[in-house]
Amino acid sequence: MLKGKKKLATLVTVCVLAGSTAMAAGSPAAVPVRAVPVQQSAPVSVGTSAIETWRTQKQLAQEETMALLWMRSAAEYRALCYQGYNAAMMEVDKALSDPARKGKPLAIVLDCDETVTDNTPALAKAAADGNGQYKSIWWRDVVHEGKSGAMPGAVDFLQQVDKKGLAIFYVSNRYAPVNYEATEANLKALRFPQADKKHILLMEKSGNKQLRFNTITADYDVVVYMGDNAGDLPIGTNGKSLTERNQIVDAHKADFGTKYIVFPNPVYGAWVSAIAKNYLTMTPEQRDEVNREFLTKNY
Ligand SMILES: [Mg+2]
To answer: Which InterPro entries does the record match to this protein (predicted)?
Structure first.
């Protein structure tokens, strides 16, 4: 049995949620994904047996517990969701009454996962099961189950935007060839409007969303961009370092809360992989050392 597990492990491409740009062939897309061979993504400190790999993943899963607990339980998380949608709606109303915006049709652009769709039940179950690194096959199965929920306030917000006549573009890094059909069905089941091929733009080749943003802005006047990852905004953070990401955000500080709306995601995202080079492929012990050093040197 261990033999079989080990063989499977060597075949499976691992996608680390916290990673990069798009939950690969199936990762919580929004859950950016970096696909790397399992032996690179899950180095173990005490050997390479299936049991030791499992133990390592369980340790990594434990790192996510408090972050997931906060998203699953805190009133403050719900409040921030409402705050984000309320701020976006103010911008929508402002744009509708702005005579200067009578050119191209108005639109909003938003990410899906952890921006309007809620995957925390599946993430929490995976963490509880000791899966601290989210495999592409696991994510594909989650997407195909079609059980992503709606974040607090998301349905009302999107339906109101739709009624006000704006176009709604769902720009997600779920991997299109594997996940499009299931994603459209899930969004429709949640009663999210405009969930069709024109408005759902998933990842084809690149996790950098800027090309998809450019396609939209060629025909639409985008009022607001919304996401839980800086890469969900057209500010050029894709592939940038921790320092660069922070500098870019600082340079756009006047636009947050108006043109750019950000939702909290302490569990995964490009911010994790930006902590240090190869952070996603470190052992829990190595991460612990990096974390400690980072927090200490920044005090
Ligand atoms: Mg997301």
So the answer is: Acid_phosphat_B-like, HAD-like_sf, HAD_sf, Lipo_e_P4
Cα of 23 from ligand 1 centre, angstroms: 10
Distance from the alpha carbon of residue 20 to the mean position of ligand 1, in angstroms = 11
pLDDT band of 47, cuts 50, 70, 90: very low
CATH number for position 102: 3.40.50.1000
pLDDT in tens, 250-279: 999 999 999 999 999 999 999 999 999 988
Q: Which residues surround ligand 1, an ion (CB under 5 A)?
A: 30, 111, 113-114, 228
In a domain, 58, yes or no: no
Compute the chain's Rg from CA coordinates: 19
The answer on pLDDT for 17 being more than 80 is no
In angstroms, what is the span from residue 121 Cα to ligand 1's centroid?
15
pLDDT over 70 at 13, yes or no: no
| CA 237 / ligand 1 centre spacing (Å) | 14
Q: What's the total number of domains in the chain?
A: 1
Distance from the CA of 112 to the center of ligand 1, in angstroms?
A: 6
Which domain range does residue 264 map to?
76-118+148-271
Over residues 179-235, the pLDDT tens digits come to: 999 999 999 999 999 999 999 999 999 999 999 999 999 999 999 999 999 999 999
